[in-house]
Design a protein that fits this description.
Elements: H1 11-21, E1 26-32, E2 35-40, H2 41-57, E3 65-69, H3 74-85, E4 89-93, H4 99-108, E5 113-116, H5 119-128, E6 137-140, E7 154-156, H6 157-170, H7 174-180, E8 187-192, E9 202-206, H8 207-221, E10 228-230, H9 238-251, E11 254-257, H10 264-271, E12 275-277, H11 280-295, H12 299-320, H13 328-348, E13 356-359, H14 366-374, E14 379-383, E15 393-394, E16 413-416, E17 421-425, E18 432-433, H15 437-442, E19 450-458, E20 464-469, E21 474-475, E22 481-482, H16 484-492, E23 497-503, E24 510-516, H17 518-527, H18 535-539, H19 542-559, E25 570-575, H20 595-601, H21 603-611, E26 615-623, E27 629-637, E28 639-640
Parallel strand pairs: 1-11, 3-4, 3-5, 5-6, 6-7, 10-11, 12-13, 13-14, 24-25
Antiparallel strand pairs: 1-2, 8-9, 9-18, 14-15, 16-17, 17-19, 19-20, 21-22, 23-24, 25-28, 26-27
Helix pairs in contact: 1-2, 2-3, 2-6, 4-5, 8-9, 12-13, 12-14
Length: 653
Amino acid sequence: MAHVASRPNTFPALVRHHAQVRGQRPAIREKDLGIWQTLTWAQLAAQAHELAAGLAALGVQAGQHVAVIGENRPRLYLAMIATQFLGAIPVPLYQDAVAEEMLYVLQDAEISVIVVEDQEQVDKMLEVADRCPAMRHVIYDDPRGLRHYSDPMLLSWEQLQEQGRAYEQAHPTEVDARVAAVDPDAPAAMFYTSGTTGKPKGVVLTHRALIGRAEVAERFEGLTDHEDVLAYLPPAWIGQNMFSYTQFLVTGFTVNHPESPETVAIDMHAIGPTYYFAPPRVLEALLTHVMIRMEDASAAKRWLFHRCMALARRVGVRILDGDPSVKPWDRLKYALGNFLIYAPLRNTLGMGRVRVAYTAGEAIGPDLFMFYRSIGINLKQLYGSTETSVFVCVQADGRVRDDTVGPPCEDVEIRVAENGEIQLRSPGMFQGYYRNPEATAESYTEDGWYHTGDAGYLDTDGQLKIIDRAKDVGKLTDGNLFAPKYIENKLKFFPFIKEVVAFGADRPEVCVFINIDLEAVGNWAERRGLPYAGYTDLAAKPEVYDLIRDCINQVNQDLSTDPKLAASQVARFLILHKELDPDDDELTRTRKVRRAFIAQKYAVLVDALFAGRDRQHIETEVKFEDGRSGMIAADLRIEHAERVPVTPLKKAA
């Protein structure tokens, strides 16, 4: 087992511990030009030491912030480790954020040294440099396209290494001394919130908080240093950072970096991770690809697939949970289905070796969740947040349900306030919001419990059930419960629907905006000989409206059987003329819907839905990738969905 009673309690000490204990074992693997390159723990520790000396040569002091911007790359991990060697604090930023978004963080955290991946990120830094007086050095990993850049603050990765070697010769004991001086209760990293309700806030997390929660997960799942993990999501997201950085440095397993975002599926298949983490949107996309491929398969293969999936839905989850009541005949049929469909499907998804998989970041639709479990993938729900170092609740093997996120983790206490809000206490709590004591104080109750902002309850089994964000849960005008996320997730299970925004609080009924999935619907249209000129054209097709209406009608049928949500069936819908986009402030960088902003931006469409109109003109400002702005205009159709009549007895109390 990787668990060691005397394990160090700071990140620099952990790196050096692994270099001593498992020095020749692979720490990081990266696919570069089609070939997997390996960095051992001994090499990782040596390079981190050298880079730390280079950062010290640039004047980085303990307690200062160092920004790290780019895709999930080994050198950016090394930059974060080297920063922590000096007692400084890495601040990862979302690589797809525009320069203006980064500007706020760079100013707020008073960033002087920035490590970036490539030319794209260098250009962003140069764009805002004149408004960041603290900015002194920008270090880049990939030199492509930067040959003729002459700004004196630019420094290549190799130049930083050279400076580190020279500094080490002149100050041979400084890095060691600074590693030894790192306090477990000092800040280890700072992550900025997604900003769903205003300006992002810097969440300060200590070495002890992060490492302690990773140790809890290690004990809970029996993780060892032989795990293989795929690092493919933004390092700025606390979920990915916990799994492929913190957990990696605590447990000492191998982290694998795909060649590029476009090759993740191929590289995942080659890696075969044993410990896997994905937000619902990634799992939705994987399922969409599967369903598209099945639509293109022969009639016989489609028949076999659907027959096997019907069996999997009926008994697959029970078999995975070790339920002894499953009949031998069903077990035999499932074993045959596993040979013909489930095992090849898991292999296609790159999940053939997965021992445990987690999903987190937002609520996952029950249908999507059970699809993966039914084919034999041990997918579990995890509940937490940036402020709590991720691990608050985790589902245990044999006790996994689609409607809960599991019981509280080790040493976590949970209570439900009178208004239904989940509140908690945990050793993994953040130190505070950076330079924002007012917001820090507001995030706690008077008696010291943290406000999660989520509404839910603990069931009789001691498992936490999340209904929705507390601010989003409301009631229809007749008093029935309205939980928008629950409705949205049920609709997003369909491969043709990429995003949904539901409205209904203080309204007589529920109406929704739909974003179609361009790949899935485009494939569907092409097989039917339906021409289209792009997203806007395809989204307006009457045939596509019929397709989406069928999906909504199925969800309404399902909702009609739920006593609490039967009244929340969708009455009317429209298909948006553009995809919701983080660059247009409609989604956060973690792809969460900014509901209040969308309601305000598209108020004319919301009003048209509830007024019963059949069409509405809209003009929308959009931002293009090159930074320019433009307008998109469209006349959107508004259509009715078919609601299932329910009796008064099925209304919520």
